[in-house]
Amino acid sequence: MFETIFVISVLIEAVVETVARAIEAGFNWKMITAFVLGGFFAYFFGVDLLAAIELVPAVAGMPVVAVNVLLSGVLFARYSGAANDLLEYLKGLRP
User: Fold this and answer.
1) Which of 65, 59, 45, 49 has the alpha carbon at shortest distance from 8?
2) Rounded to an integer, what distance in angstroms lies between the CA atom of residue 56 and that of residue 67?
3) For 57-74, what is each residue's pLDDT tens digit?
4) CA 62, CA 58: separation in Å to the nearest integer?
5) DSSP secondary structure string for all residues of 8-75
6) Spatial separation of the C-alpha atoms in residues 81 and 93, rounded to whole Å
7) According to the model, what pLDDT value does residue 11 have?
8) CA-CA distance, 88 to 60, in Å (whole number)?
9) DSSP state letter for 93
10) First to last CA, the chain
11) What's the rounded mean pLDDT across residues 12-41?
């Protein structure tokens, strides 16, 4: 139960921070592009982040798919920069 509460808290924080950054920064095409591409790839490839973290909603159907795509897009947009920074760091470690 604690894990579920923690994961939901992280999801809420990611959504709030991403929306706040989008509003404060105005039109940020990189963030919007990352959000749209993240949602598209999650839908196209059937990525179910909620099921991957064992967070299965009580409601089934299309709204769950829409929420999953939106959350996936937000999470991919939020953490794509961190993934890129990690790859750049690892490239620098090569001899």
Assistant:
1) 49
2) 12
3) 777 776 777 888 888 888
4) 13
5) HHHHHHHHHHHHHHHHHH-S-HHHHHHHHHHHHHHHHTT--HHHHTT---SS-SHHHHHHHHHHHHHH
6) 19
7) 82
8) 40
9) T
10) 45
11) 81
Q: For residues 38 and 76, is the Cβ–Cβ distance under 8 A? A: yes
Residue type, 79: Y
Above 80 in pLDDT, residue 20? yes
Report the number of distinct structural domains present in the chain.
1
**Dihedral, CA of residue 22, residue 23, residue 27 and residue 28, to nearest 10:** -20
What confidence score (pLDDT) does residue 64 get? 78
| Structure-block tokens of residue 61 | 């159907």
pLDDT for residue 25 is more than 80? no
Residue partners of 28: CB distance under 8 A and separation at least 6: 21, 22
31, 18 in Cβ contact below 8 A? yes
Residue 86, domain extent: 2-92
